[in-house]
Amino acid sequence: MSHVLHGTTDFDQVMAKHPLGFEVILVKQDGVVHGYRNSCPHVGVGLDWGDGHCLDTPTELRCALHGARFLAASGECIAGPCYGEHLQRVAVRVSDGTVVCD
Hints:
Elements lengths: L2 E4 L6 E5 L5 E7 L2 E6 L17 E3 L2 E3 L6 E3 L5 E3 L13 E3 L2 E4 L1
Antiparallel strand pairs: 1-10, 2-3, 3-4, 5-6, 6-7, 7-8, 9-10
């Protein structure tokens, strides 16, 4: 059964609540929606300051606590204390204009 995470794809980056209770970063790059668990691999805190935003540039997510930068399209850390690690990917897809997970 699919669960709706966000009702549209009209965003650059938003947070959503996964049915299992954790936050998911949804980020759209070149028309493709990617999903990542909102947890920095360095210490496990959310990337945002609690405001739901962590897209720092059009192509990079940034951890508010330590400044680690992640490629939005892959989740790879390209700068900061967890360099070379990745955000945990969450499988998402677009169905009838909504973002869903299974």
